[in-house]
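TOKENISED FOLD:
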Amino acid sequence: MSRIIELIKTDKGKIITGIILAIGLACILRLSFLNANMIIINGPPVEQTDGKIFNFDNKCYSYKTIATSCDNLSKNRENL
């Protein structure tokens, strides 16, 4: 046991301990993010799409930004 403590006190031991702790923390955070009910939407900035018309699959689409309350968030999850 005392050898481990002596190893941790050296410069290489500090580096190894830091790496082990960083990997452990990354695993814990990854598990928490995988279990979260989050939807990440990656898209162009709103300024590039707001009010413009786009053609896709022989149909035209127009995007508009509308502010809404978070009360509707639970309803949106049910529709997925």
